[in-house]
Design goal:
Blueprint: H1 6-13, H2 19-33, E1 38-42, E2 45-49, E3 53-59, E4 64-68, H3 71-74, H4 100-115, H5 135-142, H6 145-153, H7 156-167, H8 172-187
Antiparallel strand pairs: 1-2, 2-3, 3-4
Helix pairs in contact: 2-4, 6-8, 7-8
């Protein structure tokens, strides 16, 4: 059987008067739909756990929020996420929430996802732009076939390390020294941070 956390009782008791009925209503629905739910406080907000994070609620000065950990998989496109955290926007009264049966359905859907071990899809990591070698580096590489071949054969991240190191130089003399050093290391087949690599 699930349990109630006294810290959640205290959180509700310390909330604004308008928030108390909203938080109590949400808490009741979650416990009815998921009898084995466990309460805790995460990130200073009441959180409901069932085989992992299930959902959570919060009260602020003028509104409350409620949301599911696997929001897109539970609520889908219906989520009103623009004006508040959670999926139901800024809640100022119980009437701002979907019906109890709809919310209970969402809770059961979230439970099923946790039971099946479904993970949140990770957002695609944006690709870093390709490093554009400055003209002075290209001129220096053109004079050393070995260094040029190494640079062109390196992964984009290794090329970027050299390019960033060179263009970040504040003085022209420093930049010139770095280009000379880069050509020397590249001719030896070394990446920019070769000193820190385990060989």
């Amino acid at each position: 059987m699930g349990n109630k956390d006294p810290r959640v009782d205290a959180y509700i008791a310390n909330s604004a008067d308008f928030a108390k009925p909203i938080l109590e209503h949400l808490r009741t629905i979650v416990h009815r739909a998921c009898p084995d739910v466990e309460e805790t406080i995460k990130w200073r907000f009441p959180t409901f756990m069932y085989r992992g994070m299930l959902c959570g609620m919060a009260a602020f000065k003028q509104h409350c929020t409620f949301g599911f950990w696997k929001q897109g998989l539970v609520v889908g496109e219906k989520a009103a996420t623009g004006d508040a955290m959670g999926q139901f926007g800024q809640l100022r009264s119980v009437a701002d929430l979907p019906s109890a049966s709809v919310l209970a359905g969402y809770v059961r859907k979230a439970m099923k996802l946790n039971e099946e071990g479904v993970k949140l899809p990770r957002p695609a990591k944006p690709k870093a732009p390709a490093a554009v070698a400055p003209d002075d580096l290209l001129v220096a590489l053109a004079k050393n076939r070995k260094a040029k071949a190494t640079f062109e054969g390196f992964s984009p991240s290794h090329r970027r390390e050299y390019v960033e190191w060179i263009v970040e130089a504040k003085r022209p003399e420093t930049r010139t020294r770095r280009i000379e050093q880069a050509v020397e290391w590249l001719a030896e087949g070394k990446p920019r941070n070769w000193k820190y690599m385990n060989c």
